[in-house]
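In keeping with the milestone schedule agreed at the kick-off meeting, the structural modelling team has produced records for the first pair of proteins. Each record is given below as a sequence line and a structure-token line. The laboratory manager (R.T.) confirmed that both were archived under the project's standard naming scheme.
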Amino acid sequence: MKKSSTFLNLLSVLLLAAAVVAVIFFVNPMQSEVDDMKLQLDEKEAELADLTSQVAALEAMREELGSSGVSEEKLLLQVPEGVDQDQLIADMADLASEAGVDLHGMSFSAIEGDQTGAIAISASFDGNYQDLIGFLESIEKNGRKLRVRSINVQLFEESSVARANFSLLIEAYYQ
């Protein structure tokens, strides 16, 4: 019986020694891999924190841009790409008819020395004074950016009705 307990004690010591040797040979080399993975994890966490801060900054900019009410589509409507004279003529004719003004003629010319992307429009209209005011208000409300540079008004009477012949110099903007 003593022999078997000594054998069992010796066997347990040998198994313990084998476990220690296994830990030294198998787990220690893996420890360097674990350390490398911890370093990679720390780098990835730093990258994640940086990207998270960038995303937060971009979202703040998007909210700020969205709150200003300006969108790319709206900007392109206000200041379209290219002069688009056909659309300008149609817009001016529509604005004139809505305001009850007769459009007699329009001419376009480049603005000398101007690098802002604007074209000058000279247009003449007939109507009464209230029609002129309505027409100018419709220009202000128009989707495209237009700027009235000068107004020339000539009043006359036609069949005892006060009428006005007015000429406008307007700038239309484009990209």
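The second protein of the pair:
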Amino acid sequence: MTRDEFEDTKAFAVAAMIGLLSRGDELGAQEVATRSFDLALAFQAEKQKRIGELPPYDM
């Protein structure tokens, strides 16, 4: 995993965590953390499958 992928996964996990918390489900902290990263990793995998790597800048 590159540093950019690490940062993206962390950011997606935080967004997923906010979404999970806003649902108002009575999940424990560990369950929220686990689901957040599961969602982030699933999103990363789907993004890679559909659009691939970020192309370089045109120069």
